[in-house]
Design a protein that fits this description.
By secondary structure, this protein is of the alpha+beta class. The protein is about 15% helix and about 45% strand.
């Protein structure tokens, strides 16, 4: 009886930890709140691998104009998305809205801002 209780606990713990597995933004570049020269690309590093084909990054300026960026994986790193804006970013505050699907199919989303000088 004790063995079956222990096995149930291990199974429940494993399933519980899997339900919390989502890709969280770990290290964006440009960094959140930073002021930078207009970047040619953004690099979004997540806590786990993501699927570019099922993900999106939208850049919105302070007037509300927005455009989706083209996405690809960084070389040899499934946890880093490289987002290339369709046009050069002009001076001002930009909001990066991201929606990703991790390699284990969980969805997550968020946003952050940076300023182009």
């Amino acid at each position: 009886m004790k063995l079956s209780t222990a096995l149930c606990f291990v199974f429940a713990s494993t399933v519980s930890s899997l339900t919390w597995a989502h890709a969280h933004l770990q290290a964006p570049s440009p960094a959140e709140g930073s002021t930078v020269a207009a970047p040619a690309e953004l690099r979004l590093a997540f806590t786990e691998g993501v699927e570019p084909a099922f993900s999106e990054v939208t850049l919105t300026d302070s007037t509300g104009n927005s455009a989706k960026a083209q996405l690809r994986r960084a070389d040899n790193d499934t946890a880093v998305l490289v987002a290339t804006p369709a046009a050069p970013l002009h001076a001002g505050i930009w909001t990066v809205h991201w929606k990703v699907v991790s390699v284990d199919t969980h969805r997550s989303e968020g946003q952050y801002t940076f300023t182009v000088k």
